[in-house]
Inverse folding.
């Protein structure tokens, strides 16, 4: 039987073996890279003596369903194989389940994707041999998880995120990339999409408020971050710390299109706060609202377009137990 056709009931864990990993593989990750690499990954896991059961995702959102059902069925070790999108979906399943506190579930990501931004902050290696060395050490730490409450088709929605949420132009780019996924690939895909979208985007008047911070302006982008990297290595929230109990907030106010191009190096070198039109702040709660009805403000989290403002950001402290290198902050 093709493993992709098996139901979750085919993977009920041996409850006497608490260290068997429920492994969620997204074969479409990295534009099909995961599917090509999985046989080698599977062989390496077996050779290393890792005990695991595997299931393949079949559609967008499937990893969330699989992770949620797995934890509620008794699994306490979840491994995801894919990119930032698979990571976000799997984490949402762990956070949504009602069986145990999420921090009782050990989570690991084997990064095989195009962006791999979340693993940059945590120092999780991308090379398989190095990743296996880290995995077998079994070191874990707890990180904060962001919560985005937003709207789609007039209805309120909620999504967890572990990396960076972006609004305004960031969301516009994410939507463009999602709609043109088959044509966009590679390390610089986000930067190329940014350049293509820049000419079309009109800045919306925006209201942002948080503890001790308030802005009303035409905002180029608004970012709320748990970790610091996004968009293929950009540092839009360079002051983000994964476990400090705060969201890192960056607000870029009215910047010309030419100004954006000249400021591009600041997006990558961690010095974005030096720009006169950019403000950085930290807060536990952030609210973003659209001022003009004809200028909606989009939202993306961890690279996936979700919906529109009004959006409120909050966080759950130290909610996710992550397997990661021991020598990273």
């Amino acid at each position: 039987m093709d493993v992709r056709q098996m139901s979750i009931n085919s993977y009920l864990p041996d409850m006497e073996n608490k260290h068997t990993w429920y492994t969620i593989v997204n074969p479409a990750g990295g534009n099909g890279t995961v599917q090509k690499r999985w046989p080698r990954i599977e062989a390496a896991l077996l050779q290393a003596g890792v005990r695991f059961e595997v299931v393949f995702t079949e559609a967008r959102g499937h990893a969330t369903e699989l992770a949620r059902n797995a934890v509620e069925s008794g699994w306490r070790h979840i491994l995801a194989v894919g990119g930032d999108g698979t990571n976000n979906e799997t984490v949402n399943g762990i956070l949504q389940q009602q069986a145990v506190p999420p921090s009782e579930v050990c989570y690991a990501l084997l990064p095989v994707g195009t962006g791999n931004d979340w693993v940059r902050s945590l120092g999780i290696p991308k090379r398989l041999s190095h990743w296996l060395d880290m995995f077998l050490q079994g070191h874990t730490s707890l990180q904060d998880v962001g919560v985005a409450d937003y709207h789609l088709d007039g209805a309120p929605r909620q999504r967890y995120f572990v990396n960076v949420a972006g609004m305004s132009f960031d969301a516009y780019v994410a939507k463009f990339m999602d709609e043109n996924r088959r044509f966009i690939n590679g390390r610089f895909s986000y930067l190329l999409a940014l350049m293509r979208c820049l000419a079309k985007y009109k800045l919306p008047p925006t209201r942002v408020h948080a503890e001790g911070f308030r802005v009303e302006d035409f905002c180029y982008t608004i970012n709320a971050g748990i970790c610091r990297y996004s968009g293929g290595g950009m540092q839009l929230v360079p002051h983000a710390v994964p476990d400090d109990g705060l969201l890192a907030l960056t607000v870029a106010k009215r910047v010309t299109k030419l100004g954006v191009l000249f400021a591009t190096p600041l997006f990558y070198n961690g010095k974005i706060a030096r720009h006169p039109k950019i403000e950085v702040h930290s807060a536990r709660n952030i609210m973003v609202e659209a001022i003009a009805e004809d200028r909606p403000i989009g939202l993306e989290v961890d690279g996936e377009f979700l919906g529109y403002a009004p959006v409120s950001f909050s966080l759950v402290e130290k909610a996710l137990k992550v397997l990661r290198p021991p020598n990273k902050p």
User: Anything to note?
Assistant: Confidence is low (pLDDT under 50) at residues 1-17. The CA atoms of residues 12 and 73 lie 7 Å apart. Residues 3-113 form a domain with the Rossmann fold fold (CATH 3.40.50.10330). The two ends are 44 Å apart (CA to CA).
